[in-house]
């Protein structure tokens, strides 16, 4: 029975990670299957590697942009991160699953994190996490 469940879970679409997250909450045995290294390896082999569509780059003037790779036929030439007027300086920190984590500074030099979807230009602003000062 467990092999049958594995085969079903293996066919979950990779572009919908919420399905896998919700499935881990069903029962402990499904959680163990989905988190097992062998299953994750089979899942990647079954669905193949994701395509590299381009690079997120930072400019010296504290702006970030997207440069399509040569093997990707893009429907647009390039993306440019367009933060709100109050957030003039931005820096791309990381990119995962088509979304970019951007660190922005406003006029008061306060830091803000933004999750940016370059396709839809949707931006979700997050507060910068506070950290305790520790000098040890």
UniProtKB/TrEMBL annotation:
SUPFAM superfamilies (UniProt xref): F-box domain
Highest taxon of source: Eukaryota
Designated name of the protein: F-box domain-containing protein
Species of provenance: Eragrostis curvula
């Amino acid at each position: 029975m467990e092999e049958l469940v594995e085969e079903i879970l293996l066919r979950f679409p990779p572009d919908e990670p919420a399905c896998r997250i919700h499935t881990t909450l069903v029962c402990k045995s499904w959680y163990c299957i989905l988190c097992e290294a062998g299953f994750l390896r089979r899942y990647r082999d079954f669905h193949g590697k994701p395509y590299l569509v381009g690079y997120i780059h930072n400019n010296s003037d504290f702006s970030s942009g997207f440069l399509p790779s040569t093997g990707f036929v893009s429907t647009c030439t390039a993306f440019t991160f367009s933060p709100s007027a109050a957030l003039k300086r931005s820096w791309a920190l990381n990119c995962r699953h088509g979304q970019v984590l951007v660190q922005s500074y406003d006029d008061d030099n306060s830091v803000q994190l933004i999750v940016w979807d370059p396709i839809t230009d949707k931006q979700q602003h997050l507060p910068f996490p506070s950290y305790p000062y520790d000098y040890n």
